[in-house]
Write the structure tokens for this entry.
Amino acid sequence: MRKKVAILLCLAMLIGLICGCNAQTRNDPQQQQSGQSNSNGGNEPSNNTPAVQRDPVELTLLVTSSDEKTANVVRDQLKKAGINVTVNVYPDSGTFNAAVDTEEYDMMVRGYSGAGSPDANVRGPFHSNGGWNTTGHNDPEIDALIDEASRLTDAEALEVYKKLETTLIEDKALTVPLYSTLKTYAVNKNTVKADSIETSVGGARWVWSTEYNDMSQSEDRHYVMGINWANPNSFDCVQGRDGTTYYQRTNINVPLIQCAMGGVTTTRGSLTKTYTAADGNMDFYFLLRTDINFGTTVDGKAVDTGLPVAAEDVKYTYDRDTTVFDVLNEGLEKPFTTIAADKYDVDADAGKYQVVHIRLTEQYPQQLVTLSAGQISIVCMDRIEEVNKGIDVSNYDPNTHVLYGDPSTLKQGADHGVYFSGPYVLNYVDDYGSYLERNPGWNPEAEDAAKIRYVDMLAISDNSTQTAAFRNGELDEAMPGGENIALCEADENINMVKTPSVSVTSVYPILRGNSKMLDENLRKAVLYAINTDEIIAVMGKGNYVPANSNLIMLDTGYRFQQDLAKSAEYLEAYYQSIGE
């Protein structure tokens, strides 16, 4: 009896092997184009590994509601590669970040935009000490590449960034770049000059450049914009660091230097008249303009305080200050001859200027782009210290203390006492939006003086409602998204203005807690299963562009491609590593 059972078992095994010779499974490399893997220290998958039918891997992907459409396409692509994905959708960044912090999930879809420099876009999310490293990346090799590139310029920096890019993606699969969003603005072509719509490198609108077709309307007609962010937090550039006040802060406070699209630094729209860097890229010198005063609101109208925006305010904002003569006279009609004793002693005709010297603790040639970031635009030292006197981190009580720039103090008709260094003054804020007026303390003859006197930024967070209000003539400008872009493009009375951004939306593996993505093979299986062209097609061509990585501002020549054969091989290597 035992012999018969043994013979039957052997026959069954033999039949199984014969039948299995031509059987193809979901992950059979014969069904797809094969490719060599590019593992770096992980398990190198073999192209000869036999395909085995297994239950799909189960992963959880976190996403905010604004990126749900993207996440659904990613989920469908991974399912075809044998990976099941549950998409958890959160209404806002607060609940989303709280979910990440539980360390119970595997991946997330997130957009990221630094100040516009390559270093800012990779240091935050990928350096071990990065301020936006919420996923748990901690890789000495990545840290070393980021630090090395930050000390270099031009071609040398580009070569290091190329290596960083392939190391992040192909070697370690620490990110799956999906796309970069084009900033899209819709304007009424019968009212506004489309070529006057400009943005900074970070994507915020320079409203001061905007012009009416009929410039005789500039002094009386309010320019009404729709923006996406309600419930502003703080209008103090030191405190307000999120999107709720980004568009306002870009126009009501001036940065030391500006960065136009393409990463080109410019003095236009900045506090600087000329600037230079010393050898070694550790010392920067900025000769300050003498034609900008702080503005504020009195009796509901913007007024010139007579207080110059000065070096002491830059020092207060950056907490550094040394003065020195250098090659700052280049291009000046009236030469720089002496340093002014103080802000009241400046006199351009006499060649008296203030100069700011910023010394870095280490080489960082990209500092100029970082200094253009809206969250470090220049604030008024005197006013902030007066309003916030006696309040510090140790004793601050949100129930009793009202800090400088708090929206609750910026009510209509109130002399709020907030000083603004930019081309616009914020007169007041209400439940509907923010109301700006041209800063009379800004030289009206300057190229970068605001063209339109009054600007109303109405916060309409529902994009369909905002687009409808724009198309009905209630707004002069809107920020349509998704399907609303097509509606605007089809309207003959609308000009669409699209500008590049440095924001990149990616899939980030979570590398802490109970995440399955701690396994490098599984990360690579996910990486090579994703087709970014297909995602962009679903999202809407013309509104998104492929992203090589977070280094979207550089022409590295790199872009990873979907490879289902590699995905299957790495998935098989993952199964083997866990003993299945």
